[in-house]
Specification:
27 strands, Rossmann fold, RNA-binding, Glutamyl-tRNA Synthetase, domain 3, 3 domains, elongated, Ribosomal Protein L25, Chain P, alpha/beta
Length: 573
Amino acid sequence: MRSTDHRASPEAPSREAPPRRDFLREKVAEDAASGRFGRPIHTRFPPEPNGFLHIGHAKSICLNFGVAREFAGRCNLRFDDTNPTTEDIRYVEAIRDDVRWLGFTWDDERFASDYFERLYEIAEMLVGAGKAYVDSQSEEAIRERRGTVTVPGTPSPYRERPVEENLGLLRRMRAGEFPDGTHVLRARIDMAHPNMLMRDPLLLRIRHASHYRRGSAWCVYPLYDFAHGLSDAFEGITHSFCTLEFKDNRELYQWLVREAGFERPPEQTEFARLELDYTVLSKRKLLRLVTDGHVTGWDDPRMPTIAGLRRRGVTPEAIRAFADRIGVARSDARIELATFEHAVRDDLNMRVPRVMAVLRPLKLVITNWPEGQVDMLDAPLYPHDVPLTGSRPVPFGRELWIERDDFMEDPPRKFFRLAPGREVRLRYGYLVTCTDVVKNAAGEVAEVRATYDPATRGGDAPDGRRVQGTIHWVSAAHAVAAEVRLYDRLFSVPEPDAVPEGQDFIASLNPESLVTIRGARIEPSIAADPPGTRNQFERTGYFMSDPLDSRPGALVYNRTVALRDSWAKVKDK
RNA sequence: UGGCCCUUCGUCCAAUGGCAGGACAGCGGACUUUGGAUCCGUUAAUGGAGGUUCGAAUCCUCCAGGGCCAACCA
């Protein structure tokens, strides 16, 4: 139906700026120049497969893959799957999909769970060197004896167990002779260390649980600190980027890779995690939204997950541009939603075809238009300032739908739309002047009547008169009905994480984060579009037909982002 | 016996001892067949006090404010 369909080409011309130099890249550049690692730059993105990736992960993905590309290095995708009770292959698959969709390709795919054997060998080595011991205290006792930030810990009564006894116990732990929680392997460092992480950190714990990849091959599982740095070292990672809250872990990271004998071990550097206004970015909270049914799933378009943003219609280019714009630094950063929305609009503006859709229809009858006559107008798919071409036919008839908001019976001075006695332009169509208002029994406006000027086909007046307002419309006889889902911020407060004492973050959920409109009317040119098609509904916003719920004859559109609305400001004055 | 980190326009990021700059947001204007986009203009910041220096956002000291750490989570 379209004379040209640019929507078939998914890639818009690259508008991405060269990557900026942040403190991490400065450091990598230095290390690359000095050849300090004696191997190519190597990064990794290390998600735990216990949930879906979100926009905060996207920042990390862009960083790790970006650095690898910029410095001609490599980047691994490593699943940090050391906790059998929370992880699932389903999350592994979702994470792969999301990273690929974002536009990145990993060099090697690795799993921490493939390193269990090597980690266990290192555990035995540490025991042999007197650097680790088996502690048989209860979980509570271990916690209590760790001390507090201001009080030193006290050594475990098992801390001085002979090497041979430790080794025997460790082997029996590994062999499955002990129930959960009876023994743990701890590093022997310093129970009075000012850094809590260094107070004899736990290395291995017993978990008689089936691992989604290793099945029941193992019943001792490494903890994060034991697994992470050593996994980096196994893979020859040079730069291990993580978020600020791991700063204290760095000391332990270094202790472990040195004790394990790595000559030029990877180096951890921390950067600020992303915080976004009006949303939460903790997996625990996102999981709760899903399991408690506050959203329809991990891919609910209101979720800040990659899957949610994708289903909402956000493009990978927009997410990458956003990541580039916000930069990487070491101070806690909270990003305004406007910054993200700008990146989305900026990308969509240049690549998405325009169509007309009326969300809340009001009947407009052109009284001087001949009954039954249809005028096929040719309307461009892109505005004058977007360098793409193409057009589609749009039928015009006697009865049209216009937006309820585009008519006011008693308008303020600056209202440029339709009102009794006023003339407006019907986009790509004719100039019309409102003559009558028809009301229903309740006194509500049920129909508006107007006359059109036959000399203004296309929207220009030959006499040069200026018409300030242009409104969108669809032909009532040709319109396609659709469901439109208007998504808004998930929370009504900028910092849902900052919950007042004794309150639940769920309480600040925005009750209007989804407004479903069932009787929307859209111009017929979109009728055969496949699910997942993006359009701008002129004057309203950017939309994408839902990849799962939309089908021919029962179209469903998700609002990706509204257009900037400067009228909203004028209106409030 | 606490340790560590952070602090530059409203927000985010630069300035690496030498004119505090960019982006988003805001405001004003131009243009406009999207109250969109674009273009132009503009408001707006070095947390405080000392010190070093010809010169400090940058180095030092102290103070203030914020953050992280006391899961057999990552």
